[in-house]
Design a protein that fits this description.
The complex is a heterodimer of chains A (440) and B (478). With 440 residues, chain A is of the alpha+beta class. Chain A contains 13 helices and 18 strands. Classes of the chains: A alpha+beta (440), B alpha+beta (478). Bound molecules: flavin-adenine dinucleotide.
Chain lengths: 440, 478
């Protein structure tokens, strides 16, 4: 067989023949692996790195389009795939490989869910400070492929900031590693940074090593309602300036509050500040947060500790994803200074559930299926033009195809380099073809 | 050469393009063991001039080596293949401090500590603090993904840089990352940080600033031996405390330092730990007590504690003068940078002792113990050919030992020229090949800093590290 891309028509029989050792799933429910209406021809679920290498080697030989799947919580993201032959389910690789509590490091396979990892770490009084939505389904590989942050990013940075080592398989099937199990390492280029946030378009992440953090001894959440987002944001800046141990700071509109079961009054914005540390420091931080809230005109201020506090943040992380994937979700990215303005843009619609990560300038907005704007394309175009006038971006997430809507909007600065990198790492365009920004 | 010089002078002005051997001399060295002369030194004043230098160089098929303060310890700023050396030191403006958004926008030639100085009136600082922070530039920090004593709690350069303005090999200027905390597309920022000036030139840097801690407490614990001190490090981490810094000095270092600063270290002290905790007053007070208890339980014979700035500075004095003091023990030293999992520090120090005996050369250790980042310092006399050879071999043996213990070749100094021949100790051919693809990805070709990072099969250049570090002045420390 001559092995040039496109030489062989990719069909089920060819794939089944080419992927004998790669964990092909017999009688797979192909519909459950659909991406924006496109279904794969086969589903492979290798349970070893060798199997993973084998799938990608064969796929690249055949020129087959591959979409890696983690927990599937964010498969509504991105544009429709231009080619889709193999659904590569990474969840066959789901082990916590090695937790070294005394080193504060953990190595975990990409298909492990965030929840499973956190449960393992908790036994040693530690955790990985990431808090994506739906932790029981979201996998580590998926979180890294997306690269986006959650509320805890306020204190700990993005997921990439916690990664110290990575194993991945490139589109041609070569297995590569960088970093290691040491917390400080500048040996060679930081390849993991390239794969993290690339949405699985450059490599399939198969394993990652993280630095982990001791669980705080105590935590608390201070909550207050404000008539304006700007006031709530000012509180966050004031709290941050005092050097208080602020883990998260989110502003919720009343729809988001209601959906998260956290009360909420129409027209008001609810601020949630999460602090953690030693109980003496937490006690003082709660007081300081509460008085900052009152100084900025908060109407009611409440505080909750430990278990209650932690429970709130589980709900906050899941906002928009409480029951089923939202019909439409937006992620608006601005500077911290633009957060309030972006929130105001998104919050116009009375049906939108909107949250702002107050010190990070990231807004998430979502709509339930019975409540999406009438003219979605027009609505998004309007938002985008306001956002781009500020230099901000609007990312669109939706399970179904939205006519006339690009998921990413204009390409970012440096796009020419990104395209050249795609050309280098996935020259055949096999991984997640067409889904990422500008068709990367 | 003539047309090239002419075009560069047109772009930068006559003064800022040098080619006389005596003018080039100071640019042959950095802080490392290496040495090589550029043909031309071109010193741009702004991004546009950087872009012009790069374009002119590209047109003439000459390479450009960006340079900051030249404090690098792996030969990153050495023009290994000649060409144009481009110091960014004229570009040293702090463009903006945005206190409310807690960020600063600076030019690449700004000296690390000057960012924190400019931020201090706002109650802020730039966290990564390489020991060379009074001299090294933020551009060099970005290129090396520099660390420092206080990176234990706060992370290294990559965790604090929001974005950079960058000149690519075709002379185009792009921003990678920026004021936004999240952006769309590949993380070019993250890839360029730590790329040792081989892919692009940094012309502006947006960094995150953090609040100054309310209280800082420094503790100096004296131990009979390195094993006890190493055990204390592990015990502190295991207790759930993450200090801002945990630094260690071994017996040889203590013996060198004591006559210099009269810190009152006991004659039989085998190791000293410096532990710093900081943050809210309430937690610092409690953590300091616990750290002292842990140190004593691990065998500390004495723990000194300070929380006013002058006293704290006195506790740090030994640590900060160690390098200079070691310089007095031998005519030359070779300062290494290796890293192991922090629980293997004890094993690493044991292996280093064995290597010291095996090669017949004293090796001192003064390092960032909390994150397992070793800085063995091999003492030798470079006038004795055999000692010189042994020092290199001992260095290689130490790096191998780090890898065997689950560690890596470099915690913070980079690969550069120094460690390129060791790269295949920790990377497969496929790993290196994947790294090499970044170059065509960025379209860099041979334009920037050629001959670095990747193995060439050649042997190392001359050992000249000691004089280079001495130039940094007596208060230089690693
Ligand atoms: C006494 C001493 C103590 C030290 N302590 C530490 C420490 O604690 N932690 C640590 O991490 N390092 C330490 N170092 C090493 C060194 O200071 C750092 O690597 C520092 O980041 C180098 O900065 P520089 O401005 O001197 O860069 P240079 O040495 O001039 O250059 C280093 C590299 O950066 C590249 N470069 C410089 N500027 C740019 C730019 N604008 N764009 C692109 N590439 C550029 C160069 O090409 C080169 O590859 C120490 C060095 C000494 C001598």
């Amino acid at each position: 067989m001559s092995n040039v891309k496109g030489d062989v028509a990719v069909d089920v029989a060819v794939l089944e023949q080419a992927l004998p050792n790669a964990g092909l799933v017999a009688d797979a429910n192909l519909a459950s692996y659909a991406v924006k209406g496109a279904q794969p021809l086969v589903v492979a679920r290798p349970d070893s790195i060798e199997g993973m290498v084998s799938v990608l080697t064969s796929a690249s030989r055949l020129g087959a389009g591959v979409i890696p799947w983690g927990g599937g919580t964010r498969m509504g993201l991105g544009n429709a795939p231009s080619r889709y032959h193999v659904a590569l389910d990474v969840q066959g690789l789901h082990r916590v490989v090695e937790h070294r509590p005394a080193d504060l490091t953990v190595t975990v396979e990409a298909g492990c869910t965030v929840q499973t990892l956190q449960d393992t770490l908790r036994e040693s009084g530690q955790y990985l400070p990431i808090d994506p939505a739906l932790p029981a389904q979201a996998t580590i590989g998926g979180v890294l492929a997306m690269g986006t942050g959650g509320p805890l990013s306020t204190a700990f940075g993005l997921p990439r900031d916690l990664v110290i080592g990575m194993q991945a398989v490139l589109a041609d099937g070569s297995m590569v590693k960088n970093g290691g199990i040491v917390v400080k390492n500048v040996t060679g280029y930081a390849m993991d940074r390239l794969y993290i946030g690339s949405m699985g378009t450059l490599a399939v992440i198969t394993e990652a090593t993280f630095k982990v953090t001791p669980l705080p001894r105590a935590e608390a959440t201070v909550s207050a309602s404000f008539g304006s987002v700007a006031d709530a944001v000012s509180v966050c800046n004031a709290v941050a300036a005092q050097g208080l141990p602020l883990l998260a700071a989110e502003v919720l509109n009343h729809v988001a509050c209601t959906r998260a079961g956290l009360g909420g009054n129409t027209g008001m914005y609810q601020l949630f500040l999460r602090v953690a540390g030693r109980s003496s420091a937490v006690t003082r931080s709660v007081d300081a947060c509460a008085s900052a809230c009152r100084d900025h005109g908060a109407e009611t201020v409440t505080s909750m500790d430990d278990a209650t506090s932690a429970a709130i943040w589980k709900n906050v992380a899941d906002i928009g994803w409480e029951s089923e994937p939202p019909a439409l979700a937006l992620r608006m990215l601005g500077t911290p200074a633009q957060g309030a303005e972006l929130m105001a843009l998104a919050g116009h619609d009375p049906d939108v559930s909107a949250t702002l990560s107050a010190t990070r300038g990231v807004v998430q907005a979502s709509w339930a299926s019975d409540a999406t704007p009438d003219d979605v394309a027009g609505y998004i175009a309007g938002l985008r033009s306001s956002a781009s006038a500020m230099g901000a971006q609007v990312v669109v997430e939706s399970q179904s195809l939205l006519e006339g809507v690009d998921a990413w909007g204009p390409v970012p600065d440096g796009f020419a380099v990104m395209r050249q990198l795609k050309e280098q790492y996935d020259p055949q365009g096999l991984l997640n073809p067409g889904r990422y920004v500008g068709g990367l | 050469m003539e047309p090239l010089i002419k075009e560069l002078r047109q772009a930068l002005g006559r003064r800022y393009v040098m080619q006389q051997p005596e003018e080039l001399l100071v640019y042959e060295y950095d802080g490392s063991v290496e040495r090589a002369a550029p043909q031309i030194v071109a010193v741009p004043a702004d991004t546009e001039q950087v872009s012009q230098v790069v374009s002119v160089a590209r047109k003439h098929g000459v390479s450009v080596v960006p340079r900051g303060a030249g404090t690098g310890l792996s030969g990153g700023a050495i023009p290994a293949m000649g060409g144009i050396l481009m110091p960014l030191t004229r570009m040293n403006r702090i463009i903006e401090i945005d206190a409310e958004q807690r960020m600063a926008l600076v030019e690449p030639g700004v000296v690390n500590i000057d960012i924190s100085k400019a931020a201090e009136p706002f109650g802020l600082r730039y966290a990564p603090d390489p020991s060379s922070q009074k001299a090294c530039t933020i551009g060099g920090n970005v290129a090396e993904n520099a660390g420092g004593p206080h990176c234990l709690a706060y992370g290294v350069t990559t965790n604090h840089v929001l974005g950079m303005e960058t000149v690519l090999a075709d002379g185009s200027v792009i921003w990678v990352g920026g004021r936004q905390h999240e952006s769309i597309g590949y993380d070019l920022r993250g890839v360029l940080i730590g790329s040792e000036g081989t892919l692009a030139v940094t012309t502006k840097v947006a960094v995150r600033l953090q609040s100054l801690p309310e209280l800082v407490t420094t503790m100096l614990a004296i131990f009979q031996g390195e094993d006890e001190a190493s055990a204390a490090v592990s015990a502190i981490i295991a207790s759930g405390i993450v200090p801002a810094a945990i630094e260690m000095m071994d017996k040889l270092t203590i013996q060198a330092v004591e006559p210099a600063i009269h810190a009152g270290y006991p004659a039989d002290a085998g190791a000293v730990l410096l532990v710093e905790v900081e943050g809210l007053r309430e937690s610092v007070v409690e953590e300091a007590v616990e750290v002292q208890e842990i140190c004593r339980a691990s065998g500390a014979t004495e723990v000194r504690v300070a929380d006013d700035p002058a006293e704290r500075e006195r506790l740090w004095a030994g640590r900060k003068t160690a390098l200079g003091a070691l310089g007095r023990l031998a005519p030359s030293y070779y300062l290494l940078d290796g890293v192991v999992p922090r629980t293997r520090v004890m094993d690493a120090l044991r292996r280093i002792r064995e290597i010291s005996e095996e090669y017949g050369l004293p090796i001192a250790n003064v390092f960032h113990a909390g994150d397992g980042n070793l800085h063995p310092c091999i003492l030798f006399d470079e006038r004795i050919e055999d000692e010189k050879r042994r020092s290199k071999e001992a260095g290689g043996a130490i790096l191998r030992a780090c890898i065997e213990l689950g560690g890596a070749l470099s915690g913070e100094h980079g690969v550069g020229l120094e460690k390129q021949e060791y790269m295949d100790l920790c990377f497969s051919e496929a790993d290196l090949e994947a790294m090499a693809r970044l170059n065509p990805g960025f379209g860099s070709g041979e334009t920037f800093n050629p001959g670095k990072i990747f193995p060439t099969g050649a042997t190392c250049v001359e050992l000249l590290q000691h004089p280079a570090i001495t130039r940094l002045g007596l208060d230089a420390f690693v």
